[in-house]
Amino acid sequence: MKHFRMPAAAAVLLSATLLVTAAQPASAHEPPLRALADRADLRIGTAVDMTALADDTAYRRTTAREFSSLTAENVMKWESVEPQRGTYDWSKADELVRFARAHGQAVRGHTLLWHNQLPAWLTTGVADGSIDAAELRGILHRHITAEVGHFKGRIYQWDVVNEVFNDDGSLRDSLWLQKLGPSYIADAFRWAHAADPKAKLFLNDYNVEGVNAKSTAYYELAKKLRAEKVPVQGFGIQGHLGIQYGFPGDVSENLARFADLGMQTAFTEVDVRMILPADAEKLAKQATYFRGLLDACLGTRSCKSFTVWGFTDKYSWVPGVFTGQGAATPLDEAYAKKPAYTALAEALSEGR
Ligand code: XIL
Prior knowledge:
The protein has 352 residues and is an alpha/beta fold. The protein has a domain at 38-267 and 301-310: Alpha-Beta Barrel (TIM Barrel), CATH 3.20.20.80. It is built from 15 helices and 10 strands. Strand 5 (200-205), helix 11 and strand 6 form a beta-alpha-beta unit. The longest helix has 19 residues, at 280-298. (3S,4R)-3-hydroxy-2-oxopiperidin-4-yl beta-D-xylopyranoside (XIL) binds at residues 73-74, 162, 238, 269, 317.
């Protein structure tokens, strides 16, 4: 569609001729993403790296300027908040919540139950048998109650369970499933709801952008839980894409079926990686992927937030995890806007 760049001289001529005032050099004071998102009644978010937020002024300024929703990239995970059994450390997470409050930003809670980034005391105890199933269930109950309770009234969306299905639609063989059986999912939602009845409670996973075996497993689970009056209100789509894999085809259709259940939806961790080195063609393709997900979100009122998993390549998790890949965020390592940033701004400008 309208994604083209004309030579600067031609642009000046055209705007002068048509008395168009909108054409501005890239350095002009364009509205930040959050201002555009406000007009579209959408929260635009980012994951926040607390070390970068403390140490890097440009990072801090950009976080404040561009986004209306923040997610802790790591500091609300169980290993961070309860590193020793019974000893909580909310300091970093509280810092994030304070920053958000100071800048008029909402906070997504991420995440209460996952198979990764669990404290060692817990995984070791389960592995050596010193924590049995009944005790584990009590530990999970206490964790959810403590964490949701600690942030009560300050989190608008909680990722209650994260990545509980395999790609083939079967439940992940995590310690939760092994020890507690599938009922741990409903329990987690009930306990979270009891601790903060106003927070919207989400399922969250990757590879669920389009309609496929995994997203269908979530759809069936959500339908069943809601029929049983289990308080699950949202479906979170992480959105970790790579341009080498193609764009998932039926994202809008997927969002629509969750909306039909009466649920909210959200893109929770969007990034679009590529095989390095980046070049103009790959960056242009990346921009269409970001825009494709955002357009799908803007296309349904059920979609309340669109969060990128980091906004600058300087701190992205991608190169550390996916060997040879990177350049996955909307700003480069020097905070310069990539085509992906422009694509997000354009989509937001066009609104719902
Ligand atoms: C990642 C963080 O970005 C990394 O810093 C950390 O080392 C590992 O976790 N799905 C999720 C996120 O739900 O919590 C993960 O975040 C990325 C994949």
